[in-house]
Amino acid sequence: MASIKYSIRGKRNPSKISVRLKIDKNNDFKRAIPVFVNPAYFNNKSGKVRNVAEFTDKQNIQNTLDEFQHYLMQRFNKAHQKGEFINSDWLNESIEDYFNPVEKADLNYLVNYFDHYIEELKIKTNEKTGELGASKPTITKYTTIKKKIETFEKKTKKKYRLSDVNVQFRNDFLKYLLEIDKLGNNTAGRYLRFLKTVCLDAQNSGYHVSQELNKVKGFNTTVEKIYLTPEEIEKIEKTNFDDETLEAAKDWLIIGCQIGQRAGDLLQLTRKNIFAYDDYTAIELRQQKTKKQIQIPISEKVQSILDKRNGDFPLSYSKNIGSAMTVFNRHIKKVCKKAKIKEKIEGAMVNPDTNRKESGTFKKFKLVTSHICRRSFATNNYGNIPTPYLMHITGHGSEREFLNYIGKTGNDYAKNILQYWNKPKAENKKPKENKTTNLKIV
Fold first, then answer.
1. Measured distance CA(299)–CA(438) in Å, rounded
2. At 438, is the secondary structure helix, strand, or coil?
3. Distance CA 263, CA 377 (A)
4. Is the distance from CB of 304 to CB of 297 less than 8 angstroms?
5. Cβ pair 368, 336 in contact under 8 A
6. How many Cα atoms are found within 13 Å in the side-chain-facing hemisphere of 250?
7. Which of helix, strand or coil describes residue 283?
8. Residue 275 in 3-state DSSP?
9. pLDDT-based confidence at residue 351 (cuts at 50, 70, 90)
10. In sequence order, what are the residues at sequence separation of 6 or more whose Cβ sits closer than 8 angstroms to the Cβ of residue 317?
11. Mean pLDDT of the region 256-260
């Protein structure tokens, strides 16, 4: 049975009172508490304040000691029942929580400032669109990272301040994300970047941050840029399905590779998004993430699908877009499997036993997700359609971001330059022809 007792070391007036938590002979911890008393008025043998008439504050101090002892014993019992690791750090945290509780309004604490930052996002003006408030996915993203920090605090039994976010914190938090939470490298690296964004916002607002904050950096690891080639898309087009749900998934997949939209925007399209003009017909939509209003001319492939479905898009799988994306992801793997998209490539997929992504070599159809629509559109049309036009459709903010997205390297740029230099020579050798593309840009 654990015991708690107070004592004083030394004869200095006043002296700090220490608390001793003894669990057994191998677990005996002692720490000072922020309560002071004249050693002459304290009995080390009983662990209590002496009943001396001239000491007028004796009852207040004894009450403080009794209340903390009660609190500490209750906290110990709860921790013991949960199987928590109790050591000197646990005792330190208990003392800190009791005598210096973290106030919700104290934004010097990291989690508290995250709450503040998330609330500010809801009323912040978007610099790109001029609209009020961040998108729901953005708010969800920062909320998720805040929860990761909270679980990290429970693991380390410490509440972190903004000033604690230094190189050591970065390394410890990263190790937790990778080894304990089993996140992928890119996800963990992205979380570090968002963490730094919040801390920089706090710094700009006048809060004290670590001098090492500029050294706290996220990272990216090279991953295979998975997309469907034009030849693979053609194989999918030629594959027929008796099951209407799979036929619908096939049509959505082809449309997605033609218009380059995120699944959240793609799967909500209806005939209301189709607009006819004098010399063309287009799909018009407002992107959820970027808030951009865009117009994409309807290609022959998309038009043939619409004609097959009496001028409408395939039916959505669910009114809830999250559920619709889950069903779509499941079905397009089956579509690509039947279309024999079986080339073995490097990639990562979720292990159903651990529910975490694991890298390896897999048949391509296993790696297909809804995101392949946007990347296939961008990759297959790069070099054929001016990059700014493609960026307008995909929603990328910079050419660097776009090129990194499709995995272009220095060799690709060199080849493009060479092709550009040689183009006038080739044109002089043969008559000019009027070339048409399958996709017009408005």
1. 6
2. coil
3. 13
4. no
5. yes
6. 24
7. strand
8. strand
9. confident
10. 245, 267, 323, 324, 327, 328
11. 96
Residue 404 confidence (pLDDT): 83
Q: What is the DSSP letter of 203?
A: H
Both structure tokens of 189: 């690296």
Nearest to 368 by CA among 253, 277, 259, 215: 253
Amino acid occupying residue 92: N
What are residue 345's phi and psi, to 5 degrees? -140, 165
CA-wise closest residue to 191 among 160, 226, 152? 152
> Is 146 within 8 Å of 115 (Cβ atoms)?
yes
3-state secondary structure of 338: helix
Phi and psi angles of residue 228, each rounded to the nearest 5 degrees, phi first: -95, 130
Residue 225, token pair as written in the block = 């840029």
User: Model pTM?
Assistant: 0.61
- If one compares 77 and 412, the residue with the highest pLDDT of the two is 77
Q: Which helix or strand (DSSP H or E) is residue 404 part of?
A: helix 399-405
Rounded Cα gap, residues 37 and 110, in angstroms:
34
Query: What value does the mean pLDDT take over residues 170-181?
Result: 94
**Sign of the CA dihedral with 217 first, then 402, 409, and 413 last:** negative
d(CA 154, CA 151): 5
- Contacts (Cβ under 8 Å, ≥6 apart) of 214: none
Q: How far apart are CA 263 and CA 265, in angstroms?
A: 5
Contact 113, 207 (CB under 8 A): yes
The token pair at 336 is 């690509």
Report the alpha-carbon distance of residue 37 to residue 14 in Å, rounded.
5
